Amino acid sequence: MMNVKVVRMVLGGGALLLAAAGHASAVDLFNGKDFSGWELQTTPAAPMSAAFTVRPGGVIASSGQPSGFLATTASYRNYRLHVEWRWTAKPGNGGVLLHISPGPMDRVWPVSLQVQTKHGSVGDILPMAGYGFAEPPTSAPGAQPVIKARMAADSELPAGEWNSADIVSRDGTVEVTVNGAAQNKVTQASPRFGRIGFQLEGAPYELRGVALTPLD
After folding, report:
1. Phi, psi of 105, rounded to the nearest 5 degrees
2. Residue 38: which H helix or E strand, with range?
3. How many folded domains does the chain comprise?
4. 45 found inside a domain
5. Over the stretch 76-110, which tens digit does the pLDDT of each residue have?
6. 15 in a domain, yes or no?
7. Residue among 73, 125, 140 at smallest CA distance from 95
8. What is the spatial distance between Cα 16 and Cα 148, in angstroms, rounded to a whole number?
9. How many of the other CB atoms lie within 10 Å of CB of 35?
10. Residue 30's domain is classified under what CATH number?
């Protein structure tokens, strides 16, 4: 197996990581010890310890509060992202943010593409703060938030069980699979790269197995 050469480009004070050649291996985005390589943005501002903690075995626990998001400090282009999550109390709202980029905020949300983990809506896609893609939304004209609903029957597991999402982002096409079921796809996504993050929207949850595989 060939090793992957990872190229780091400095863009606007951040780093863009992409695979340059060879066959990539998955890289854990959390180191299992602390939140090196991540930053928290909330309203009101809060310390990391109030929103996220590392539990034994590298499980990441979120209090779900205050409103905001946790994001990588590095940006990524062309990758497969694996994420596992479960609700630890009453199921609520949350999401995985892709391609987080500088720009006008929508309340506490950055320019990004949200893959919903909201209970009952897992697999929906939302363009946040002016994000764009080619496909028309399924939400009513003028409705907020703008939503492109999942394409298949609900594949979310019962509350308390670990769900998994596999998200492939390549050259502006983003495909979402939830617990093995293909649930959504958009093309001509803009921007096509950026940071990766997790929302805080009031409900506590846990994360594990957050791994990114660069794609050629």
Report:
1. -90, 150
2. strand 38-43
3. 1
4. yes
5. 999 999 999 999 999 999 999 999 999 999 999 99
6. no
7. 125
8. 27
9. 18
10. 2.60.120.560
